[in-house]
Design brief:
Blueprint: H1 2-19, H2 42-49, H3 51-54, H4 69-75
Length: about 80
């Protein structure tokens, strides 16, 4: 049991410390979303706000593709 504590407790401590953001009041680099009022460039807005889920080409990734019939059916 002593050996277990000598190995596991430091590993848990390191894992918890690594998961924490050392500067919580500052956003992570690259996590800033561009407000729509600051740019009118569609490619820039899509790349920052949409591509993460819909894929860089809009064909789907974590979310459905933008040309998916499910979306098209709601537009009619």
């Amino acid at each position: 049991m002593r050996r277990f504590r000598l190995v596991v407790v430091p590993l848990i401590t390191v894992a918890v410390a690594a998961a924490c953001n050392s500067f919580p009041e500052q956003p992570l680099r690259g996590a800033m979303v561009i407000p729509p009022g600051n740019t009118t460039d569609f490619n820039e807005l899509y790349g920052v706000n949409c591509a993460g889920c819909h894929g860089a080409d809009g064909k789907g990734d974590a979310a459905r593709g933008l040309a998916d019939p499910v979306f098209s059916a709601h537009r009619r």
